[in-house]
Design goal:
Elements (H helix, E strand, L loop, with lengths): L2 H11 L21 H8 L3 H9 L7 H10 L3 H11 L15 H8 L5 E5 L5 E4 L1 H6 L9 H7 L1 H6 L3 H15 L4 H13 L1 H8 L9 E7 L3 E11 L7 E7 L4 H6 L2
Antiparallel strand pairs: 1-2, 1-5, 3-4, 4-5
Helix pairs in contact: 2-3, 2-4, 4-5, 11-12
Protein name: Helix-turn-helix transcriptional regulator
InterPro entries: Cro/C1-type_HTH, Lambda_DNA-bd_dom_sf, MLTR_LBD
Organism: Kribbella ginsengisoli
Length: 257
C-alpha cells in the first residue's frame, strides 16, 4: 500500500453508510464503508478502486481522484492532498526561510494584534512584539510543533490544547508531500510522541485558515484571539498569522506590552 492508498483506506473507515446516503445492510466486520460502496459512489469499478487502495494502481486521473474525493467527503483540502499523493499537483516552489523586511514592518504595524510568520513546518520565523510576549512561556519560540507535544508550558498556555494540537497536525499533513524538511519533522515527532502518532493516524487534512484560540497567559491572564492565515505570495511556503482580540480580551492583550 502506498501513501495514497493508506489515506483512502483510513478516510473510508471514518465514514458510515448513513453519512453518504446508503442503507446499512447487515453487520460489518470492519468500521466504515466497504470498498465496493466507495466504487459505486465514485462511478469506478470495484476492482479498480481496490487496486488503487492497495497501491497496485498508481496513476489515477484527476477525474478519478475528484470522484473518489466526493465519494469520501474529503472536502477541498482533502481533495488537494489526494492530488498531491497521486502526483497530479504541481511541485511546490523551494520554500523560503528569509522574512522580507517589508513583512517585518507590516507585522510591527499591528499594535493591537499578534502577528507572526510561519513556514510549512509551522516554525515561527518572525513575529511582532505582542506575539513574542504572548508566546513567551514557551521555552523556544521557533519550533511550534515540537513545543506543542514536548513543552509542558504549551499545555498550560493553550486553553484547548487538544484542538490546537489536532489542527496543527492536520495543517502539517497538508504541507508534507514533497517537502523533505516537513517529512523529517514528522518522523521525529512520530518517534518521540505517542499523542502526535495517534493524531497522525487519523489522516485529517486542513489548513490553519480562520480559527479562535483562547490562551491562559501568566501575565495577561485569559484572552481569546481570532486568527486569520494569509499565504505570502512573494515567499513560497510562508504564511502570515494575525490574531485579533475579542472585545473582552483587549485589556488582557494590553497587559502583554
Amino acid at each position: 500500500m502506498n501513501d495514497l492508498g493508506e489515506f483512502l483506506r483510513v478516510r473510508r473507515a471514518q465514514l458510515t453508510p448513513e453519512e453518504v446516503g446508503l442503507a446499512a445492510s447487515g453487520a460489518r466486520r470492519v468500521a466504515g464503508l466497504r470498498r465496493e460502496e466507495v466504487a459505486v459512489l465514485a462511478g469506478v469499478s470495484a476492482d479498480y478502486y481496490t487496486r488503487l487502495e492497495q497501491g497496485r494502481e498508481r496513476n489515477p486521473s484527476g477525474q478519478v481522484v475528484d470522484a473518489i474525493a466526493r465519494a469520501l467527503r474529503l472536502g477541498q483540502n482533502g481533495r488537494w492532498y489526494a492530488y498531491q499523493l497521486a502526483g497530479l499537483a504541481p511541485k511546490p516552489e523551494t520554500p523560503s526561510e528569509e522574512v522580507a523586511p517589508a513583512l517585518r514592518q507590516l507585522m510591527d504595524a499591528f499594535d493591537e494584534a499578534v502577528a507572526y510568520i510561519i513556514n510549512r513546518r509551522l516554525d515561527v520565523l518572525a513575529c511582532n512584539a505582542l506575539a513574542a510576549a504572548l508566546l513567551s512561556p514557551l521555552e523556544d519560540l521557533r519550533p511550534m510543533m515540537t513545543n506543542l507535544f514536548h513543552d509542558p508550558a504549551a499545555r498550560d498556555l493553550f486553553d484547548d490544547w487538544p484542538s490546537v494540537a489536532r489542527e496543527s497536525v492536520e495543517a502539517l499533513r497538508l504541507a508534507s508531500p514533497d517537502n523533505e524538511s516537513v517529512q523529517q519533522l514528522i518522523g521525529e515527532l512520530l518517534a518521540s510522541s505517542n499523542e502526535f502518532a495517534e493524531l497522525w493516524k487519523q489522516h485529517g487534512v486542513n489548513t490553519l485558515g480562520s480559527t479562535v484560540k483562547t490562551f491562559n497567559h501568566p501575565v495577561a491572564g485569559r484572552l481569546t484571539l481570532t486568527y486569520q492565515t494569509f499565504d505570502i505570495q512573494s515567499a513560497p511556503g510562508q504564511s502570515l498569522l494575525v490574531g485579533t482580540p475579542a472585545q473582552e480580551s483587549l485589556e488582557a492583550l494590553k497587559r502583554l506590552t
